[in-house]
Amino acid sequence: MKRLNHRNIMLGIAAFSLVSCAVPKVTELKKSKELPEHIVNKQNIVENSEFQQINLKEYFKDEQLLALFDKVVRENQDFQIAQQRVDIANSFLQRSKMDLLPSLEIGATASGDRYGKYTMDGVGNYDTNLSQNITEDQKINRDFTPNYWLGARSSWEVDAWGKLKNKKLAAQKKYLASAEGLRLLQVELFTDIANLYYQLVTLDNRLAIYQKNYNLQQRAFEIVLAQREVGKATELAVQQFKAQNNNWLAEIEHIKVEIVTVEQAITTLTGSYGGEIKRGNVLMPTNMEILNKNINVEKVIHSRPDVASNYYVLEASQADAKAARAAFYPKIDLGASFGLNSFSAGTFFNPSSLAGQLLGGLMVPVFNKGQLKYEFNVASKEQEIAFLTYQKSVTTAFNELQSILKQTKIYERVLQLKSEEVGFLDRGVEVSNDLYVTGYANYFELINSQKSKLQAELDLLQFRHQNTRNNVLLFKALGGKLD
Fold first, then answer.
1. Which of 111, 110, 108, 112 is nearest to 150 (CA)?
2. Cβ of 413: how many Cβ atoms within 10 Å?
3. Cβ-based neighbour number of residue 278 at 10 Å
C-alpha cells in the first residue's frame, strides 16, 4: 500500500515537472538605448555647477500667470476627468492587494426539501428515524426537511507561483503610470496656458507698437500737410500718408480681434464663462543660468512625466506577462467553513449543532493550456509594444531638449541683433524727418523709414515671443517640478 502511495506521488511530481517544462519564459525588462553624456556645448559651463530640477514658481515668476495655473488645476474639466481616472487606477490597486488575502463571508442560509419515498435521501431519512441510536430531537421531518446554517466561510488561493503578486505589481505600476499621466496633463495644460498668456502679452505689445508708430506717423503727416500748404509737397504725398494711416488703424482693430480670440481660449481652458484676463506686459527673459549648468541627461529625461509614465507601463506589462505565465502552473485553493448547522429550528442553537469543514484543491490546466498560451503571447506582445513606446518617448524627450537648448542660445544672438537694428531705425526716422523738412529727402523716404522702423519693432517683438515660447517648452523639456 505504501509503495502504491509513493508511486502515485512520484507520478504527480513527474506530471508537474512536465507542466513546468512547457511554461514559456518572460522577456527580461529591456533598457533604452544609451543616451549621449553631453547635450549642449559645454565651453561656458562653470566647473562643479550641477543642474538641479527647476520649480514651477521659481521658473515662472509672473503672478498673473501663476494665478491662471492655480485656476486650471481647480476648474479645468479635462484635468478633473484625469484625476478620476487616477482614483480608478488606485481602486484597482487596492482590489489587487485584497486578492492576496483570504476571503471571509459571514451569513446564514435556509432551505427545505421534500424527498420522494423512492429516493436515496427519502429511504435514508426513513431508516434514520427507526434507528435506536438517535434521540427524539435527532429525528428528521420526512414530510419537509429543512436545513439551517449560520456561520462563516473562507477561501484562499495560495499564490505559490506569484500570479496574484504580479497582478498586484501590475496594478501598482499602472496606478503610478496614471499618476504620471495626470502630471503630464498638468504640464501640458500649464504649457498651453503659458503660451496663450504670453501670446496675449505679445498682442498687447504689438498693439502698443502700432499705436506708438501711428502717433509718430501723425507728426510726419502734419509736416506733409504744412509742406503742401506752402507748395513744397503734393496732394499725392498727402494721400499716401492717409492710406498708410488707414492701414495701421485697420491693423490695430485686427489685433483687438485676435486679443478677444486668445482671451476666449484661456477662459475655456480655465473652465470659465468669459471674463477679463489679468496680465502683465513683459515677456519671459532667457534663463541663461540654466544653459551654463552641467545637465545630467539621463536624470532629466527620466524625470519627465511622459517618459516616467511609459516606463511604469513597461514595468506593468512585464508583471502582466509574469502573471500570465504563472497561470500555467497548478492552482492551489484552500477553504474552510464554521458555524451552526441543523435540520430543525429547535436544535439550531444547541452546541451540538456546531459544524466545520476544511477543503483543499489542486487544479492543473490541461485542455485550456492553448487559451493560456494565447493570453501569454498577447501579454508578451504588449510588453514589446510598451518598450517601443518607452524608447520612443526617451528619443523624443532627448531630441526635444537638445533642440530647445540650442534654439535658446541662437535666440539670444538674434534678439541682440534685432534690438540694435531697432535702435538704428529709431535714429533713422528722426534723421528722415529732419531731411524732409530741409528738402534733402522726399516723402517716399519718410514713409519707408517709418515703415522699416515699425517692421523692425514687430520683428523684434515676434522673436521675443518665439524666445518666450521656447522658454516655456524648456520647463517641460527639463522635467520641471509642479509643487
1. 108
2. 9
3. 10
Provide mean pLDDT across the span 398-422: 89
| Whole-prediction pTM | 0.80
Q: Which residues pair with 109 in a beta bridge?
A: 149
Q: What is the pLDDT of residues 173-208, one digit of tens each?
A: 999 999 999 999 999 999 999 999 999 999 999 999
Q: What is the 3-state secondary structure (H, E, C) of the chain?
A: CHHHHHHHHHHHHHHHHHHHHCCCCCCCCCCCCCCCCCCCCCCCCCCCCECCCCEHHHHCCCHHHHHHHHHHHHHCHHHHHHHHHHHHHHHHHHHHHHHCCCEEEEEEEEEEECCCCCCHHHHHHHHHHHCCCCCHHHCCCCCCEEEEEEEEEEEEEECCCCHHHHHHHHHHHHHHHHHHHHHHHHHHHHHHHHHHHHHHHHHHHHHHHHHHHHHHHHHHHHHHHHHHHCCCCCHHHHHHHHHHHHHHHHHHHHHHHHHHHHHHHHHHHCCCCCCCCCCCCCCCCCCHHHHCCECCHHHHHHHCHHHHHHHHHHHHHHHHHHHHHHCCCCEEEEEEEEEEEECCHHHCCCHHHEEEEEEEEEECCCCCHHHHHHHHHHHHHHHHHHHHHHHHHHHHHHHHHHHHHHHHHHHHHHHHHHHHHHHHHHHHHHHHHHHHHHCCCCHHHHHHHHHHHHHHHHHHHHHHHHHHHHHHHHHHHCCCECC
Average pLDDT of every residue of the chain: 85
What pLDDT does 17 receive?
Answer: 47
Determine what percent of the chain is predicted with pLDDT higher than 70. 87
Q: In this structure, is the dihedral angle defined by the CA atoms of residues 299, 304, 305 and 311, taken in order, positive or negative?
A: negative
Alpha carbon distance 405, 476 (integer Å): 12
| 407 vs 112: CA distance, rounded Å | 83
pLDDT value at 222 more than 80:
no
Phi, psi of 358, rounded to the nearest 5 degrees: -120, 135
Evaluate if residue 47 carries a pLDDT over 70.
no
Identify which of 303, 294, 318, 305 has the alpha carbon closest to the alpha carbon of residue 31.
318
